[in-house]
Design a protein that fits this description.
The protein has one domain (2-85, 124-190): NADH Oxidase (3-Layer(aba) Sandwich), CATH 3.40.109. It has 210 residues and is of the alpha+beta class. The protein is globular. It contains nine helices and four strands; from the N terminus they run H-H-E-H-H-E-H-H-H-E-H-E-H. The longest helix is centred in the middle third of the chain and has 25 residues, at 125-149. The mean pLDDT is 97.
Length: 210
């Protein structure tokens, strides 16, 4: 636990990446594992994660990200895209996965499936999109913590035009929307912000024990 806290203190929202350094395939796989293992409501994971390494695509995304250099200088750009709408198939696919993974007969999962369907399906489309977008932030948090553990730098980013991202990446046709982005790679020695002290609310202000 001591190292975990030290690593969280080490990490920061990297402003300038070293464009010559790339994340090794095995390290990227570990980050993918961390994202895959993220918690999500009901376990449904109502999103898709795009890993962008093509430099030409990154150049287009930079233009849609207000010219921020992290997009093109980072080793990879991770785009968390939430489902903008869903129906029973999302739940049915999940139930099928549970049955296969845990060797459970579908009939024994019907109660859980019906509960999710009756809870989620009646939601208005905008409420569904809001809920799925929130799930992507849980996965983002897991990515940031895992990256710190592996001494990989990351910068979470909301400063981008989602509509342009959706067009560039063909997300509209997939019922997806770019919710949040993370640039990952290795900090540049020229990034002065890495030397800044971390600023957080004091615990007495942040926490209340009841």
């Amino acid at each position: 636990m001591t190292n975990y806290i030290k690593n969280l203190n080490w990490r920061y929202a990297t402003k300038k990446f070293d464009s010559t350094k790339k994340i090794a395939a095995e390290d990227l796989d570990q980050l993918k594992d961390a994202i895959q293992l993220s918690a999500s409501s009901y376990g449904l994971q109502p999103y898709k994660v795009l890993i962008i390494e093509d430099q030409k695509i990154k150049e287009q995304l930079k233009a849609a990200s207000w010219g921020q250099s992290q997009i093109t200088d980072a080793s990879h750009v991770i785009v968390f895209a939430n489902m903008t709408d869903f129906d029973e198939s999302l739940i049915n696919d999940y139930i099928e996965n549970i049955g296969i993974t845990r060797s459970i007969e579908p009939v024994n999962l019907k109660g859980y499936a019906d509960f999710m369907i009756n809870t989620l399906n009646p939601l208005p489309k905008d409420a569904k999109a809001s809920w799925t977008a929130k799930q992507t932030y849980i996965a983002l948090g897991n990515l940031l913590s895992a990256a710190a553990e592996f001494k990989i730098d990351a910068c979470p980013m909301e400063g981008f035009d989602a509509d342009q991202y959706n067009e560039i990446l063909g997300l509209n046709e997939q019922n997806l929307n770019a919710a949040v982005v993370a640039a990952i790679g290795y900090r540049s020695e020229e990034d002065e912000t890495q030397h800044n002290k971390k600023v957080r609310k004091p615990k007495k202000e942040l926490f209340t024990t009841i």
